[in-house]
Amino acid sequence: MALVKIHDKTFEPFIPAEKLNEAVQEIADRMNEELANKNPLFIIVLNGAFIFASDLIRKFEHDCDVSFVKLSSYQGTKSSHTVRELIGLDESVTDRTVVLVEDIIDTGITMDNMIHQMKGMGAVDVKVATLLYKPEAFIKDFTIDYVGMDIPSDFIVGFGLDYDGKGRNLPEIYKIID
Ligand code: IMP
Ligand code: MG
What we know:
Layout: E1 4-6, E2 9-15, H1 17-34, E3 41-46, H2 50-59, E4 65-75, E5 78-87, E6 97-105, H3 109-120, E7 125-133, E8 146-150, E9 156-157, E10 173-176
Helix pairs in contact: 1-2
The structure holds inosinic acid (IMP) and magnesium ion.
């Protein structure tokens, strides 16, 4: 795989599609055991999680509902530390088992915000699933129930993740080099 240039930055291959698929399958296997009779409501955090979520949901073999919220916290290659809600939830979470689906947990600010909102709206159980997790950047203390892979704090793109809007369509994950 070759280097990729997006805007002013260069990225190198980091996680191949095959490994991503394995990580998604492992999460799905656990969910198929643990959430089989819960009729979970999967809430997909747009935009970044759309690719992960579409793979994950198709591997879930039991009754479920799927809904979406659109949040934004990153500007360029850095967290802005404030979460903007661009599209809200149009579905009741009262008495539901909610599974928040994220592409990546970095500082944890976005998810922390979502967890509090879901509990405030009456969800009985709020679970968190993320394809990728940057433990060195995490500043919150909630439990992440399902993690595909831990990664270092480098900025990445591909498989749904973007750099200023570009790179989401790359089928594997690339890491910034300069
Ligand atoms: P957090 O609130 O700091 O945990 O950031 C979470 C959000 O920031 C994720 O949902 C992503 O949309 C975005 N993000 C975090 N790290 C990266 C990255 O390396 N590349 C692209 N987007 C990222
Ligand atoms: Mg995201």
